[in-house]
Amino acid sequence: MFGGMPFRVEAWIPIGDLGSVNVYAFTDGASTVLVDSGMFSGKSVYTLLKGLRRVGVDPRSVERIVVTHYHVDHLTGAAILCEALGAELMLARGDLELLLRVGVEEYFRRALELLALAGTPREVLEEIKRYSPAVRVAEAYGAVAELGPKPLGEGDIIEMPGHGDYLVLETPGHTPGHIVLVSHGKREVLLGDTVLPDITPHVSLHSIDSDPLGNYMSSLSRIATETAGYLGLPGHGNPMKDVAARARQLTRHHVERLEEIVYILSRLAGATAFEVAQRVGWSVAGGWRGLPPLGKYLALGETLSHLRRLEVLGVVERLEVEGKLRWRLAVNPLDAASLIKESFRESG
Length: 348
Ligand SMILES: [Zn+2]
Known about the structure:
The chain is α/β, with parallel strands linked by helices and 348 residues long.
């Protein structure tokens, strides 16, 4: 006999409009496993501990923290919690490898290098550098690495106290190693940021040879088929009754954005990603110009991941002209539309 939903506790985070991250607590009273952990900040950890007490979970019973992906608001709170509670940390294998092999400062340096190649003017890059949280949390990631997290990957099983076994599925895209945790018995999936109810999870491009949006669309397709009708427990916001419906909606959003970028390139052949990003209809007042520096950073990464997807599909070509990447249609717009639709059918 296993209880209903795990407890959902919101940990405060100082990131844009998000406000908080969901931490899920599975407990049988004596032992507790947390999924995700909030941020490397006194207030974030404090709100999490208070929240656990409020639902009747003694923080001292936490023996393990499982983290869905390496983003600062999900992972870095664990550095404080594991030190204080002696808990074990487990992290998505692909993200752990990146964290240990590349490190956050080098990762961000490469991201900025790619943005410069993408035609981002120096003043916009400077603005982004000043506002990026990645630089401020280098210390936090160092503390996480020092804990020696254990890797988790496809097919691993985690026993949740009082709730039975959860299966690990790899759902790359939002980060290269992102995992979700599924209970087929309870028809429930812990999603991290793979599927969110109110916002579109960010998909950036970290290296020009990768195809994170392609990976992400395959992950959405997996969620829509393997967990159809399941309760979705997201990293931000409220539970979703049918996670598959939301996954399909997100797929449609990306198909529309791919089509929008094809349209932009049909009018502006040989554009840089920066020029494309300025013309995309971002859902903020004022579009591109209404975006804060961090928003511009995300929007550029998003544009690049879509351009790269179109390149992999054979819809666009990438040229390097005087140290800048430029993109143009490789097929006529009609064929572009059918290539996009075909790929969507394959993955959906
Ligand atoms: Zn995230």
